[in-house]
Specification:
By secondary structure, this protein is mainly α. The chain is 46% helix and 0% strand. The model has no long low-confidence stretch (mean pLDDT 84).
Length: 105
């Protein structure tokens, strides 16, 4: 059964898959319709610094560097398979710190 789908030129379809995994390979019939793009690892220190600056921390750069150093050490010690040491985790910690700071003020 053949089905037509009408799309506009503002339509976007994004897929994410790990090319090293054999189960996640893109079928050859679909490859011409997708453009490959590469994602880089986020700069955790910059993200942490911006979040700290946005909440009024004056020594945000120093705190961000210390937090990222701690996260890198934790990743090396505990591994990343059972723990999330990425952006999501840093944001959660910083949200907690900001909430505690606001509660203390």
């Amino acid at each position: 059964r053949e089905t037509s789908v009408h799309i506009t030129n503002t339509f976007a379809c994004l897929i994410t898959y790990a090319p090293t995994s054999s189960s996640a390979s893109l079928p050859d019939s679909l490859r011409p319709y997708f453009r490959i793009s590469v994602l880089n690892l986020p700069e955790l220190s910059v993200i942490a610094e911006v979040l700290l600056l946005a909440h009024g921390f004056k020594n945000a750069q120093d705190l961000a560097n210390k937090l990222v150093a701690f996260y890198k050490l934790a990743t090396e010690l505990f591994g990343s398979t059972s723990h999330d040491w990425g952006v999501r985790s840093i944001r959660a910690v910083l949200q907690f710190v900001v909430a505690r700071r606001l509660a203390a003020a």
